[in-house]
Amino acid sequence: MTTITPRAMGQALDRFDGAEKVRGLARYAFEQPVEHPAYLFAVQSTVAAGRITGIDCSQASAQPGVLAVLTYQNAPRVATDNGDLRILQSNEVAFRGQFVAAVIGETSEVARHAASLVRVDYEARPHNVDLRGEVRAHREKLRVPNEVMPIFPMGTAEGDVDAALASAAVRVDQSYSTPWCTHNALEPHTTIACWADGRFTLHLSTQGVNRIQAAIAGAFRLAPDRVRVISPHVGGAFGSKVYPWADVVLAAMAARLVPGRPVKFALTRQQTFSQTGYRPPTIQRVRLGAGSDGRLVAIDHDSIEQTSKVREFVEHSTRATPGMYAAPNRRTRQWVADLDVPTATIMRAPGEASGMFALESAMDELAVACGLDPIELRIRNEPDVHPHFGLPFSSRNLVACLREGARRFGWEQRDPTPRARREGNWLVGTGVAAASYPVLRLPGSKATIRVGPDGRYVVLIAAADIGTGTRTALTQVAADALQVDVEQVDLRIGDTAYPPATEEGGSSGITSWGAAICAVADQLRQRLAAEHGGTVPAYGLEVTADMPENPYLTQYAMHSFGAQFAEVRVHEETGEVRVPRQLGVFACGRIVNPKTARSQLLGGMTWGLSMALHEQSVLDPRFGHVVNHDLAQYHVSSNADVGAIEVHFIEEEDPYVNPMGTKGVGEIGIVGAAAAIANAVHHATGVRVRDLPITLDKLLPPGPGHGLPAAAM
Question: Which residues are catalytic?
Answer without folding.
Answer: 667
